[in-house]
Amino acid sequence: MLFTMSSQDQFLEHSRRGVTKAQTAVARASEMTNNNPAQQQRLEKVRADVEVIVKWLGLVSEARRTEGVEAATKRIFGGQGLHRFTEMRDLLVEAMGEEERLLADREAELAAHLRSVEYARLVVVAAAVILLIGAFAMQRRQNRLLNEARQALQASNAVLELRVEERTRELSATASRLAAELVEGERQKRVIQENEELLGTIIENSADPIFVKDRQGRYRMLNGATASAIGRPREEIVGADDRALFPGDLAEALMAEDGEVMETRKTVTREKTLQMATGRRTYLTTKVPLCGPDGQSRGLFGVGRDITAFRQNEVRLRETAAGLEALSAALIDIQEKERRALSRELHDEVGQQLAALKINLARVAEQTSDPGTLDRLGDSRQIVEQIIGRIRETALDLRPQMLDDLGLAPALHWYAQQQQERSGCSIAVRADPVTLPGDAATACYRIVQEAVNNALRHGAATRIDIRLEIRDAEIDLLVADDGCGFDREAQRDKPAPGMGLHGMRERAALLGGTLVIESAPGCGTTLRARIPVGQGKA
Q1: 3-class state of residue 219 by DSSP
Q2: Displacement of CA 61 from its chain's centroid (Å)
Q3: 27: helix, coil or strand?
Q4: CA-CA distances (angstroms) from residue 55 to 3, 25, 46, 71, 156?
Q5: Are 351 and 339 within 8 A, CB to CB?
Q6: Cα 297 to Cα 260: distance, rounded to the nearest angstrom
Q7: Mean pLDDT (the chain, rounded)
Q8: What pLDDT digit, counting tens, does each position of 271-316 carry?
Q9: Measured between alpha carbons, how far is 522 from 420 in angstroms, rounded to an integer?
Q10: Going by DSSP bridges, is the β-strand pair 426-431/463-471 parallel, antiparallel, or unpaired?
Q11: Domains along the sequence of the chain with CATH
């Protein structure tokens, strides 16, 4: 209006700036209400009104310049500018009312949101308090656990220190022991080396053949005695087997024996006679399997002993023993014959002469009346009587006639009765009435005679039991006493053992029998002879 009256551009500029501000405000309001369709519609109408007002102001301004005040006034009051101003104002009022309402709604929503936030804050505060309380309790528990852990750690440290100290002592002792073991190991190593050298020297200088073979029977080690026995240089023998060194059959037998030793993994000792370089020799060979850590045979070790001279001496000894046995049997036979002859001579000749002497003394006594002569003749007759009794006993001891006439059992009963009357010792005889060959009967009688004499003279026996039986086609003769007994080992170790015991054993052996004596100091003596029936001569 001022521009219309004064026609000055400065007043028109105020209107232009107002329109520009209105356009800017509409743009900002559009941005702020882009989520409200009704507000966006109002703002579109306001924008259209602003454009119309801008055009209207341009027309008014042009009419004032060119046509004057009246034309401009007509343009102002006659155009749509005022109407658009009124419409724009109304739209802005509605928009502001709508915004106030929306603002109130937003304020209510914000208040509700603030209340929710306050509640949430309270919940958060309560949760924080609870968490703080829990954290405090947890901290206290952690502090307590930490203290306990610290105490346990201190105790563990103490125990660990003790263990470390103890382990240190153990390690020190172990180190000392290991050092001592190392020193001892070195010493033992030297000893082993010395022993190996000594063993090698002994093996090499041994007179017995010593050798080692592998699994295939090849010689791997041997001493000089082995090479000498085979009759080949050692270099030719090492690596060769028996097939290359001995004849076919002998080589196969030797290798079969080696295979047996390695298969069974058992030591074998056998005697064999071989044709060697030094002649036909007899060896007692022992072969030992050499096994590895897995228990399998890796070869064998063998050692042989040349027993040729021993076997030759053994043959000579058997021949000599057979000759001595025959000589002993002949001597015993001669002795028995001499005993028999002497017994008969004493009984028949000397006994008859003494009997004649006794008769003559009796006749002389009948022819004299001198008391002194009669006394002397009586004494002489008694002496002769005693001599006759002694000669009769001696003859019976030399060879009891009833042994030849009645047999062994009656002779034993008679002999026991005679010895019982002489010594006062109780002698019991239990003998089967058997008929035996002469040599067997004589041997049994002499064994009993020697055993009873030993029991009476050396054992101080008070009871003697004699038993004669036939069992399983052999004579079973037993003589047992309750005397003082003797030590068999001490008796065996004497330089000259009793000839009586030796004689009894020899008599039994000559008839193919055995004689066993059991005795101990204070336990009496038991003698037992077993002689096959049918041995000996009638």
Answers
A1: strand
A2: 132
A3: helix
A4: 16, 19, 14, 16, 98
A5: no
A6: 11
A7: 77
A8: 888 877 777 888 889 999 998 888 888 899 899 888 888 888 887 8
A9: 22
A10: parallel
A11: 1-198 (no CATH), 206-306 (3.30.450.20), 312-399 (1.10.287), 406-538 (3.30.565.10)
Q: Find residue 306's DSSP bridge partners.
A: 283
Of the given ranges (104-108, 313-317, 494-498), which has the lowest mean pLDDT?
Answer: 494-498
Split at pLDDT 50, 70, 90, the class of 466 is: very high
Residue 201, token pair as written in the block: 């020297």
- Cβ(268)–Cβ(248) below 8 Å: no
Pick the residue with more confidence: 392 or 140?
Answer: 140
Among candidate residues 209, 222, 201, the one with its CA nearest the CA of residue 306: 209
> Of the segments 65-79, 130-144, 267-281, which one has the largest average pLDDT value?
267-281
Q: Are 398 and 446 in contact (CB under 8 A)?
A: no
* Alpha-carbon span 362 to 360, nearest angstrom: 5
Cβ neighbors of 292 (< 8 A, separation 6 or more) are 298
For residue 496, what pLDDT is reported? 46
CA atoms of 132 and 192, how far apart (whole Å): 81
- Identity at 8, one-letter amino acid code: Q
Q: Which of 47, 70, 72, 76 lies closest to 62, judged by CA?
A: 72
Tracing tokens 């309560």 back to the chain, one arrives at 126
Confirm if 460 and 496 have CB atoms less than 8 A apart. Answer: no
Residue spans of beta strands (DSSP E) within 205-355:
210-214, 219-222, 268-276, 279-291, 297-306
User: Tokens 């928009």 identify what position?
Assistant: 95
Residue 83, SS3 per DSSP:
helix
Cβ-contact 427, 452 below 8 angstroms: yes
Dihedral of the CA atoms 389, 391, 392, 398 (nearest 10)? 140
- 185 confidence band (pLDDT: 50, 70, 90): confident
Phi, psi of 270, deg, nearest 5? -140, 155
Q: Are 459 and 483 in contact (CB under 8 A)?
A: yes
Closest CA to 443 of 312, 297, 332: 332
Q: Cα separation of 336 and 343, whole Å?
A: 10
CA 7 distance to own-chain centroid: 136
Task: Quote the pTM value.
Answer: 0.40
The helix/strand/coil state of 533 is: coil
The three-state DSSP-derived secondary structure of 313-370 is HHHHHHHHHHHHHHHHHHHHHHHHHHHHHHHHHHHHHHHHHHHHHHHHHHHHHHHCCC
Listed in order, strand segments (DSSP E) in 165-267 are: 210-214, 219-222
The pairing of strands 514-519 and 210-214 is: unpaired
Give the whole-angstrom CA distance, residue 354 versus residue 443: 32
pLDDT band at 482; cut points 50, 70, 90: very high
Q: Residues 20, 22, 28, CA angle at the centre, nearest 5°?
A: 105
CA 366 to chain centre: 103
* Residue 160 CA, distance from chain mean position: 38
Q: Which residues is 532 bridged to in the sheet?
A: 474
What span, in angstroms and rounded, lies between the C-alpha atoms of 19 and 464?
A: 173
